[in-house]
Write a structure and sequence with these properties.
Blueprint lengths: L1 H21 L1 H63 L2 H10 L23
């Protein structure tokens, strides 16, 4: 029983193979399928390479921007130090002495009567 089943399957497989070999449309279909698969694989490969290239380029751009950011932070810190030095009391006293300014001993504040500051005469 099993032997008969295998022999019938073998015979049907042989018939299909001989039909495939003799049928030119089947060969064209196979060529077309292979061609389409090749084109699809090529396109997928190109898209993959394009994306990888874009990622690498963005990585370099990010690294450059991080370096510029670090440089600007350093420059900002140096400028903050310079501002602090220029506003220091010792420097201001040095400038006062250099410009021959006189220190004020007594400060008087004027108070306006009411809410008017200027008078119209």
């Amino acid at each position: 029983m099993r032997k008969a089943f295998l022999s019938t399957k073998w015979q049907s497989l042989k018939e299909k193979l001989t039909d495939i070999d003799q049928n030119p449309n089947y060969q064209n279909k196979n060529r077309n399928k292979l061609l389409m698969m090749g084109v699809l694989i090529f396109c997928c490969g190109m898209i993959y390479l394009w994306q990888i290239n874009g990622l690498a380029t963005r990585g370099y751009q990010i690294k450059d921007l991080e370096n510029k950011s670090a440089e600007l932070k350093d420059a900002n810190q140096k400028l903050q130090i310079q501002i602090t030095q220029l506003r220091s009391t010792a420097r201001l006293q040095e400038k006062v002495a250099k410009l021959n300014m006189v220190e004020v001993s007594r400060i008087e504040y004027l108070q306006a009567n009411g809410s008017t500051v200027a008078m119209n005469r």
